Amino acid sequence: MSDPIDTPAAAPATATTTGPAPDLRARAAGLDATDGLAGLRARFALPEGVVYLDGNSLGALPAGVPDALADVARRQWGELLIRSWDESAWWTAPERIGDRLAPLVGAAPGQVVVGDSTSVNLFKALVGAARLAGPGRTRLLVDAATFPTDGYIAESAARMTGLTVTPVDPSHAAAAFDADTAVVLLNHVDYRTGRLHDLPALTRAARAAGAVTVWDLCHSAGALPVDLDAHGVDLAVGCTYKYLNGGPGAPAYLYIAERHQQDFDSPLPGWNGHAEPFAMTPGFVPAEGARRGRVGTPDILSMLALEAALDAWAGVGIADVRAKSLALTDFFLECVAAYVPAGRVESVTPAAHAERGSQVSLRTDDARAVMAELISRGVVGDFRAPDVLRFGFTPLYVGFADAERAARTLGHIFG
Ligand SMILES: Cc1ncc(COP(=O)(O)O)c(C=O)c1O
Predict the structure, then answer these.
(1) Which candidate in 99, 190, 198, 216 is catalytic?
(2) Ligand 1 mean position to 191 CA, how many Å?
(3) 65-83, pLDDT tens digit by residue?
(4) Taking the domains of the chain in order of start, what are their residue ranges?
(5) Probe residue for ligand 1, chosen from 56, 114, 119, 253 as the CB with the greatest number of ligand atoms within 8 Å
(6) CATH superfamily name and code, 24-37+316-414
């Protein structure tokens, strides 16, 4: 499958046309029939009759997870008990699963460690980044539209490290990078609008200014190529419960580029990140590699659910996932334009492929009630205050007929 990232969108981003619906159902069926990824849906346990467009919030259940979890609980925990820390390789799960996840974000092995929440990893990354930047720089630049937790954690990290937070518009952030900039924290995809930011160019510009970059990949990992190593990203964090389908509260991850690992000084130096955890010595000596990003005892049940969930990616190329994601969101916008009366919704997601993540956000009056009605009719997206309907397209289990039905149902609600 070719990767059309840079081609302009075929559909208008704003739904303005009505009139006789073209035969979109037949088009959807044809697109599903030729979709090389369509068979992947069988790797997930999805309820019958539901169109699930909220995988950008909580990914669907991969079919192998319940049995894997039962084995972890019954055999590994119930029978082997404490022996499982070694015999079931529980102890090394954070690095092992980090290495399994690494190709999905374009990282070579040894740079990703899984554990804790995204918020906690942001804290480690931001304070670690400020320490890497060293003295003499005063500003921590933060995506002005960021998911709130990033802003809260950045404020605290800045206070602890003597920096001042400066909000920046990510689309024009490069103009703000200067010799005073210590750290730059940006979201790869905006959680509200679905806008994709230019990670390669922004990382290049930040590094040219001598700043340390921290990227939040929550809304891009598993949906599109990230290529952390190729673009020279310094540090990154992300969650695994969205496009990676790790389950509710699944552990997050921290990426520490190899060139920084020796100097990465975690503000949470727990015993799991110690070079010799079982030496039980009073002084902290950081472990080699990304393992120094660990803190305390890993949440094994969630972590091993995530490991089983990653089986759903066997043989899947992220470029193919991206191509299907763009085709799905193009088609959904086209269907919305055909089915929804003019002027009732407006897309706040960029039309240009190079600026679009894997969700479509539609602004409308009374968005909360409209989403509740959609859900009652079997189309599950979500609502973000004050007026945004979000529809996430996870190419592993969403098809073109789902996109058509979601838009048609939206049209009926406004009809
Ligand atoms: C962009 C972004 N960053 C951070 C978070 C918070 O992650 P956590 O609850 O794992 O700390 C979310 C949660 O949805 C998010 O969308």
Answers:
(1) 216
(2) 9
(3) 999 999 999 999 999 999 9
(4) 24-37+316-414, 66-313
(5) 119
(6) Aspartate Aminotransferase, domain 1 (3.90.1150.10)
For 48-64, write each residue's pLDDT tens digit.
999 999 999 999 999 99
Ligand 1 geometric centre to CA of 76 (Å): 30
Tokens of 61: 């259940």
CATH fold of 66-313 reads Aspartate Aminotransferase; domain 2 (3.40.640)
Pocket of ligand 1 (CB under 6 A): 117-119, 147, 149-150, 187, 191, 216, 218-219, 239, 252
The predicted-structure confidence for 178-218, as pLDDT tens digits, reads as follows 999 999 999 999 999 999 999 999 999 999 999 999 999 99
Q: 244 CA to middle of ligand 1, Å?
A: 13
Q: Is 119 annotated as a binding residue?
A: yes
